[in-house]
Amino acid sequence: MSIHVPVLAGEVKVLLNLKDGDKAIDATMGAGGHTRGILFSVGGSGRVLAIEQDVEMIKMFGDVPQNLTVENANFRQIDDLAERNGFATADAILFDLGISRWHFIESGRGFTFGNPNEPLIMNLDKNSDVSAASILNSMDERGLAGMFAELGEIRPDIARKLAREIAETRKKRKFVKVGDLLAVVSKAVLKRGKLHEATKIFQALRIKVNEELENLDIAQKKAFDILATGGHLAIISFHSLEDRIVKNYFRELSKNGKAVILTKKPVIARREEILQNPSARSAKLRVIEKI
Ligand SMILES: C[S@@+](CC[C@H](N)C(=O)[O-])C[C@H]1O[C@@H](n2cnc3c(N)ncnc32)[C@H](O)[C@@H]1O
């Protein structure tokens, strides 16, 4: 099993500024790397609520200490989850967005173009009917083009070409596996060996399937409401679309005198960390303190 190494662990620890007895929420538990760090910071008398949408990730954590509550849910419901578990206020909240290394490598849900035989699922929520395949098979051509342009940041003319190719292909056969999408991608978009576009196409689908941008927009606002005065909200993002949402919201809070931005520029991983953990390459950490 590929273990997910938490990114920016030292920086997160310092900037969350937790102390013995505090209450904290880890909104994206994953394999629990950051959760363990937070548990250590709040000590035995503190409490931690960890939220994770993907039940397979939660299973990896092992024994749950008595001061940790784990919720298998979407962080979009962070307000209800916090309230229900006695976290009406929290001293720190962390979001470490996106998906884990395990999802890419071992989940078997078609998150990367490297595994052509995997089904096009890309869903974190096992109970949802939406999958990458269902989007490719049912969304109208205009919607597909918009999705690739907006969420994959692909040139609009290329996005339209890809959408046209998908619409033509599905008249003959449905999209089921990663390889089905790759065949269309290489026909419509890719020049030989140019995989960058494929990465962005997969990213767009994943963001759409999981409503990642909507979830973030809603959840960060709810999280701020839960935060105690003086509490810290830390968000690690992995692509510019997410980072923009966080940056704009933090600026708005600062402008309105509701928060102080603790990271004038986003914190990024040091070279040594990136060498050891390539996932850290695109990580950007932004932190605010509630006034
Ligand atoms: C980058 S990983 C987190 C890794 C974790 N911090 C660690 O140290 O192991 C992001 C995690 O957030 C989860 N996730 C993504 N969107 C979510 C959402 N809307 N609600 C709850 N969990 C979500 C993913 O399933 C994934 O496990």
From TrEMBL:
Q: Name one GO molecular function term.
A: rRNA (cytosine-N4-)-methyltransferase activity
Spans traversing the lipid bilayer: none
List cellular component terms (GO).
cytoplasm
Q: What is its EC number?
A: 2.1.1.199
Gene Ontology process terms (BP): rRNA base methylation
Family, per entry: Belongs to the methyltransferase superfamily. RsmH family.
Q: What is the lineage of its organism?
A: Bacteria, Candidatus Giovannoniibacteriota
Give residues annotated as binding S-adenosyl-L-methionine.
32-34, 52, 75, 96, 103
Q: Which HAMAP family match?
A: 16SrRNA_methyltr_H (MF_01007)
Organism expressing this protein natively: Candidatus Giovannonibacteria bacterium RIFCSPHIGHO2_02_43_13
Q: Does the keyword S-adenosyl-L-methionine apply?
A: yes
Indicate what this protein is called per its UniProt record.
Answer: Ribosomal RNA small subunit methyltransferase H
Matches recorded under InterPro entries: RsmH, SAM-dep_MeTrfase_MraW_recog, SAM-dependent_MTases_sf
- Is S-adenosyl-L-methionine one of the keywords? yes
The record's function comment reads: Specifically methylates the N4 position of cytidine in position 1402 (C1402) of 16S rRNA.
Q: What is its main location?
A: cytoplasm
What does the UniProt keyword field contain?
Cytoplasm, Methyltransferase, rRNA processing, S-adenosyl-L-methionine, Transferase
> Subcellular localization, per the record?
Cytoplasm
As its record notes, the protein acts as a catalyst of: cytidine(1402) in 16S rRNA + S-adenosyl-L-methionine = N(4)-methylcytidine(1402) in 16S rRNA + S-adenosyl-L-homocysteine + H(+)
